[in-house]
Write a structure and sequence with these properties.
The complex is a heterodimer of chains A (282) and B (225).
Chain A: E1 2-10, E2 16-25, E3 30-34, H1 41-48, E4 56-61, E5 64-65, H2 71-76, E6 78-81, H3 93-97, H4 99-103, H5 108-121, H6 138-150, E7 156-160, H7 168-185, E8 188-193, H8 196-202, E9 205-210, E10 214-219, H9 221-226, H10 231-236, E11 247-250, E12 256-259, E13 265-269
Parallel strand pairs in A: 3-8, 3-9, 6-7, 7-8
Antiparallel strand pairs in A: 1-2, 1-4, 4-5, 9-10, 11-12, 12-13
Chain B: H1 2-6, H2 8-42, H3 44-56, H4 62-73, H5 80-104, H6 108-116, H7 121-152, H8 164-173, H9 176-204, H10 216-223
Helix pairs in contact in B: 2-3, 2-5, 2-7, 3-5, 4-5, 5-7, 6-7, 7-9, 8-9
The chains are: A alpha/beta (282), B mainly alpha (225).
Bound molecules: adenosine-5'-diphosphate (ADP) and magnesium ion.
Magnesium ion (MG) binds at residues 41-42, 160 of chain A.
Chain lengths: 282, 225
């Protein structure tokens, strides 16, 4: 469990990035910090592994104030995935994935073996092991980033817009795979994004943020869609837009065709498992 | 030509002297530039005073420096150490800006990623920043190497033995062949060292060589679907 207790961060130049933010991130679930650019998501995320020190308040992991843990040791126990993968241009894929186990003292051969295993776990062709990141596609780089974060089996995974820079099709694919991984691994994930669809697809709990890291609403995807706390949330989720106003019409072959407000088809609703909750993004 | 063949052992000896003066100076300038260059990036406000200030050393005419240094170091003018220190200062003047630029060129994202995975400050410097700054450091080092090798000759005027002695002796005794041999050998030495540095860079920084993208890159992505 990760707890943010009334944390604030004012950067030395006077920018108040986060003000009095509190949140509990339950273990073994995915919490999404959702908000537009500059609202303090990265700042909040980095407070967990002490890449950013709060100017007030504290962050606790399983009831231990992270401020009492050596930053280097703390970071080696927490997985971190960045937007632009943050891979080391000079390391081969397999070496990069093995970084944290190596830092934690795992012998080279063992660390490599684990790295190769992880490549498989995240769906990377083992042939890519000896490549440098410059020789990978964007999607492959992000997979390597995820594998590296998972390499020493951390309990916590911090993901900062990890799929933000890849094209939409690959992004969907990566989201699907992360969900599959999470079903197996049950990590405590804090996932930052400004993409509402991504938040709905991945979050067990979603925190909608206003500028200044202030919480607009916390809830499950369903709670947010069913009962947005206010206009801000409603607008953020795009509930006012045609995109999320869905209509269903009977289909000749059985079931219903679902369209958005503009009449564009989105999919088919089976009568069998019918009901409006069939695809609530869970 | 005859003169050169007759004096070949002498020329080789002078080449070795030349090398023994320049190599330590180049190495020392390189090593000193690393912490200074890194510091300049760490403290942006210090960058110009530091880089600019040290760079000004290069504006000191070389001959006076060779003469003044013994007064500061307590060495004698003819001592090789004197020449090595002077050459180190000139090398550093060139190298410190390259080093600052080199460390400045390390992407912030990569540096942050190195922090995030849990590298210590020292480990990050040695295993991430230094190798990534490598290509730009190498470029600077090549300039320093060539410039130092040509500068060494100046010290011959003061009686420090090097390939430069071929010029001084050649002028004194009117042996054109000696002068020509001096020029050619100095240039050859600079060239050989430069090639060695390039080769070293290839070995130490293999990630810079573009490997042709094979279809594996695309099929792997698909295969994972
Ligand atoms: N190192 C820093 N120094 C000064 N201001 C910063 C720094 N990092 C972030 N900020 C500012 O803090 C605010 C929140 O930034 P950030 O946490 O990166 O937001 P997000 O990740 O949601 O885009 C922004 O206004 C940003 O400009
Ligand atoms: Mg951010």
């Amino acid at each position: 469990m990760i707890e943010f207790r009334q944390v604030s961060k004012t950067y030395p130049d006077g920018t108040a990035a986060v003000e009095d933010f509190s949140l509990t991130v339950p273990s073994h679930t995915t919490t999404v910090l959702l908000g537009s650019s500059g609202c303090g998501k990265t700042t909040l995320l980095r407070m967990v592994n002490r890449m950013v020190e709060p100017t007030a308040g504290s962050v606790r992991i399983d009831d231990v104030d992270v401020a009492t843990v050596r930053p280097v040791a703390l970071r080696r126990s927490i997985g971190y995935v960045m937007q632009n993968s943050g891979l080391m241009p000079h390391r081969r894929v397999v070496e990069d994935i093995a970084t944290v186990p190596r830092l934690n003292g795992v012998p080279r051969a063992e660390a490599r073996r684990r790295a190769m295993e992880l490549m498989e776990v995240v769906g990377l062709d083992p042939q890519l092991a000896r490549r440098h990141p410059g020789q990978l596609s964007g999607g492959q780089q992000q997979r390597v980033g995820v594998a590296r974060a998972l390499a020493d089996d951390p309990n916590i995974l911090l993901m900062d817009e990890p799929f933000g820079a890849v094209d939409p099709l690959v992004r969907l694919e990566l989201q699907r795979e992360l969900r599959r991984l999470q079903d197996d691994l049950r990590k405590t994930i804090v996932f930052v994004t400004h993409d509402i669809d991504e938040a709905l697809a991945l979050g067990d709990q979603i925190v909608v943020l206003r500028p200044g890291g202030r919480t607009a609403q916390v809830g499950t995807p369903r709670e947010l869609v069913e009962a947005p706390a206010d206009d801000f949330v409603s607008r953020f989720l795009g509930l006012g837009e045609g995109r999320r106003k869905l209509r269903a019409a009977p289909r000749p072959g059985g079931g219903q065709v679902v369209t958005d407000d503009a009449g564009r088809p989105l999919g088919v609703l089976d009568d069998a498992d019918g009901g409006p909750s069939a695809d609530a993004g869970e | 030509m005859e003169w050169i063949l007759e004096n070949l052992p002498h020329i080789l000896e002078l080449t070795l002297d030349h090398l023994l003066l320049s190599a330590p100076a180049v190495l020392a300038a390189f090593l000193l530039s690393l912490p200074l260059g890194r510091l300049a990036v760490r403290l942006p406000r210090l960058r110009e005073p530091l880089v600019g200030g040290i760079g000004l050393l290069y504006a000191i005419p070389s001959l006076p420096l060779f003469i003044v240094l013994p007064l500061i170091l307590g060495t004698s003018i003819r001592e090789p150490l004197n020449a090595v220190v002077a050459l180190t200062l000139f090398g550093l003047a060139l190298m410190v800006r390259s080093a600052a630029d080199a460390f400045g060129s390390v992407e912030e994202d990569v540096r942050l990623a190195a922090v995030a995975v849990g590298h210590s400050a020292g480990g990050r410097f040695l295993t991430v920043e230094l190798p990534l700054a490598g290509p730009a450091l190498l470029a600077g080092l090549r300039v320093v190497s060539v410039s130092t090798i040509s500068l060494v000759s100046v010290s011959a005027v003061l009686g420090v033995t090097s390939l430069g002695s071929l010029f001084t002796d050649g002028f004194e005794r009117g042996i054109v062949a000696a002068i020509v041999a001096g020029i050619v050998t100095t240039a050859a030495l600079a060239l050989v060292l430069d090639l060695l540095l390039v080769a070293l860079g290839r070995v130490l920084m293999p990630w810079r060589r573009p490997v042709p993208r094979r279809s594996a890159s695309r099929s792997a992505e698909k295969g994972a679907a």
